[in-house]
């Protein structure tokens, strides 16, 4: 690696300003995140740029595979970059060109697709995913990332990112949605009854080509004007008014006679009313005569008056 890790040439890539760091040896280490470790002297060079404490890098392999990462610590040996094992497998190289990138937009919404059907049977799987995603700093569209949930590693593909292809998810409230590719709608096949519909074209053609003799005979009787003129017509005779009045009188007289007979029959069938027993009023009982007490005569008090003599 050159003594100067940073080359002063800067170029614009989409919304990112990049600065080339240099070429380093890739050393894999066990981690389910996208953070790398750089040499200590890289920190001295980065501090001269007067940037914030969060640094993002682009790793490019010899086969032009791109990976976007953040830096965790500056503890690796010189000319060596420590990369998580799953990222080193994507790079498929022993050397990677490292470039510092800036101005990555903050993310708002992503949609991920679990690659194992067993994941959907986990309790509170959405909260577990949100916790494991906090170990990542950058997310790239169409990238497959591993998340360790309990004792098993599940893989997830990022199939949708709102408005961008690369986002920063540090210290934000990220909305995460899931796509279940294993879900299949069950189609219910209802039994269908076979209905033999008539062929209207054949029926119409047979009626037009082979008319019956009865139809022709009936149409001749209806639409032949000469035969209609020779048919005798019987005159309609109306009854006299006097006869109608007599018939009405007879009807009403019979009706009244029937009503009278019914009333007579009802009266004959009704039972005679039972005479009500006269209830005798209770005789008044003689009350015992109370002995009247004789009045007590008044007591007469006689007073004696004495005359006083004058002295």
Short description:
The chain is an alpha+beta fold and about 300 residues long. It has helices at about 40-45, 85-90, 125-135, 200-210, 215-225, 225-230, 240-270, and strands at about 10-15, 15-30, 35-40, 55-60, 65-75, 80-85, 95-100, 110-115, 140, 145-150, 150-160, 165-170, 175-180.
Structure description:
- This protein is α+β, with helices and mostly antiparallel strands.
- Among the domains are: 92 residues, Barwin-like endoglucanases (Beta Barrel), CATH 2.40.40; 70 residues, Vcp-like ATPase, Chain A, domain 2 (Roll), CATH 3.10.330.10.
- It is built from seven helices and 13 strands.
- A hairpin with a 2-residue loop joins strand 1 and strand 2.
- It is elongated and about 140 Å long.
- The protein starts with 9 loop residues before the first strand and ends in a 42-residue tail after the last helix.
- The N terminus is likely disordered.
Number of strands: 13
Can you count the helices? 7
CATH superfamily of the domain at 10-101: Ubiquitin fusion degradation protein UFD1, N-terminal domain
The CATH class of the domain at 10-101: Mainly Beta
CATH topology of the domain at 10-101: Barwin-like endoglucanases
Map the helices and strands.
Layout: E1 10-13, E2 16-29, E3 35-39, H1 40-47, E4 56-61, E5 66-76, E6 80-84, H2 85-91, E7 95-101, E8 109-114, H3 125-133, E9 138-140, E10 144-149, E11 152-161, E12 166-168, E13 175-178, H4 200-209, H5 213-223, H6 225-229, H7 241-269
Parallel strand pairs: 2-6, 3-5, 8-13
Antiparallel strand pairs: 1-2, 2-7, 4-5, 4-7, 8-11, 9-12, 10-11
């Amino acid at each position: 690696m050159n003594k100067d890790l940073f080359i002063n040439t800067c170029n614009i890539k989409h919304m990112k300003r990049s600065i080339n760091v240099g070429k380093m040896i890739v050393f894999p280490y066990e981690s389910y995140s996208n953070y790398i470790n750089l040499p200590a002297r890289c920190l001295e060079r980065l501090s001269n740029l007067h940037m914030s404490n969060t640094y993002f890098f682009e790793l490019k392999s010899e086969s032009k595979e791109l990976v976007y990462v953040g830096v965790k610590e500056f503890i690796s040996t010189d000319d060596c970059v420590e990369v998580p094992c799953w990222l080193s497998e994507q790079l498929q190289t022993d050397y990677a060109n490292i470039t510092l990138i800036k101005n990555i937009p903050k993310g708002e919404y992503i949609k991920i697709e679990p690659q194992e059907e067993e994941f959907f049977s986990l309790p509170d799987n959405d909260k577990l995913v949100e916790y494991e995603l906090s170990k990542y700093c950058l997310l790239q569209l169409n990238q497959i990332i591993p998340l360790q949930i309990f004792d098993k590693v599940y893989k997830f593909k990022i199939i949708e990112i709102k408005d961008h292809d690369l986002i920063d998810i540090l210290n934000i409230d990220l909305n995460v949605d899931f796509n279940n590719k294993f879900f299949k709608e069950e189609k219910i096949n209802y039994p269908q009854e076979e209905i033999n519909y008539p062929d209207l074209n054949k029926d119409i053609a047979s009626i037009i080509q082979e008319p019956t003799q009865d139809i022709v005979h009936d149409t001749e009787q209806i639409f032949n004007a000469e035969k209609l003129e020779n048919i005798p017509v019987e005159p309609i005779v109306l009854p006299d008014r006097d006869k109608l009045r007599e018939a009405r009188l007879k009807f009403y007289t019979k009706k009244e006679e029937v009503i009278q007979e019914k009333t007579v029959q009802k009266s004959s069938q009704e039972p005679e009313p039972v005479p009500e027993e006269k209830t005798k009023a209770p005789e008044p009982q003689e009350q015992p005569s109370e002995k009247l007490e004789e009045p007590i005569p008044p007591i007469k008090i006689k007073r004696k008056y004495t005359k006083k003599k004058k002295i």
